[in-house]
Design goal:
With 231 residues, the chain is mostly beta strands. The protein has two domains: 1-34; 38-231, no CATH class. It contains one helix and 14 strands; from the N terminus they run H-E-E-E-E-E-E-E-E-E-E-E-E-E-E. The protein has one helix spanning 2-34, and strands at residues 39-42, 46-53, 56-63, 72-78, 84-99, 105-112, 122-130, 143-146, 150-157, 160-167, 176-182, 188-203, 209-215, 224-230. It has an eight-stranded antiparallel β-barrel. Strand 5 (84-99) and strand 6 (105-112) form a beta hairpin. The longest helix has 33 residues, at 2-34. The protein starts with a helix and ends with a strand.
Length: 231
């Protein structure tokens, strides 16, 4: 009887241990599946960093060429089946604009905010030339300008400067808005800029790639682009 009891006890313990190990493995598999978006993804133009855990999901991206494209971050949610990640992409930065002596053009010294593993802002320079004449001598920044990449519509009200920009037809950039402050002598403005658009990521069944739809702005008729990211 003692021998039988010991054998029975051994069998019970074996079953319990097997059940515990199986449950742990199931939990590990479930966790890996639940956080399937987590990791680094790549396309020819960008490296994408997605962080997914029990608190939610977020993302940031860095272009392969920081002179051609901007870094940015993602704000979005997952679909109920976990296969689609959608929301808004955001790119932002700062700029210092300096008038020429005749106030018919200005130099842009700008930067794009660092994202992902970036430790410093990406720097860029540009020159914008006024279209037409100065329309408001008391607020000389007011007017339309064009640079190598974009057209600008600026409005000055005392020391406050606001504006919008649009990419030129052959430039693969995004429209944006800016807000700044004009210096006391009126020759310099400092401010921030921001660009936003929509994104939809759909993961492949094998979890190793995703098809991406990006809109250039948040307008209903915004231009859309397609691309593919892989792990």
């Amino acid at each position: 009887m003692k021998i039988i009891s010991k054998i029975g006890l051994f069998l019970v313990l074996s079953i319990l241990i097997t059940g515990i190990v199986s449950a742990e493995n199931a939990t590990d598999i479930k966790t890996a599946s639940e956080y399937a978006w987590n990791g680094t993804w790549s396309s020819p133009q960008y490296t994408l960093y997605i962080s997914q855990d029990e608190s939610g999901i977020s993302g940031a991206y860095v272009p392969m060429d920081l002179l051609e494209y901007d870094s940015g971050y993602l704000e979005g949610t997952l679909s109920s089946d976990g296969k689609t990640y959608s929301g808004i992409w955001i790119e932002s930065g700062k700029s210092t604009n300096t008038f020429s002596n005749d106030r018919m053009s200005f130099t842009i010294n700008g930067s794009t905010d660092p994202q992902g593993p970036m430790t410093e802002p990406a720097q860029y320079t540009s020159n914008a030339t006024r279209i037409g004449e100065i329309v408001d001598t008391a607020n000389p920044w007011t007017g339309n300008y064009v640079s190598e990449w974009k057209s600008y519509n600026l409005t000055q009200d005392g020391f406050v400067l606001t504006g919008t920009n649009e990419p030129l037809p052959d430039n693969n950039d995004n429209p944006g808005v800016m807000n700044g402050t004009v210096s006391e002598d009126g020759m310099t403005s400092n401010g921030t800029w921001i660009e936003k658009g929509g994104f939809t990521f759909v993961m492949a069944d094998d979890g190793n790639s995703m098809n991406v739809n990006i809109t250039k702005s948040l307008e209903p008729d915004a231009i859309a682009e397609e691309m593919t990211f892989t792990r």
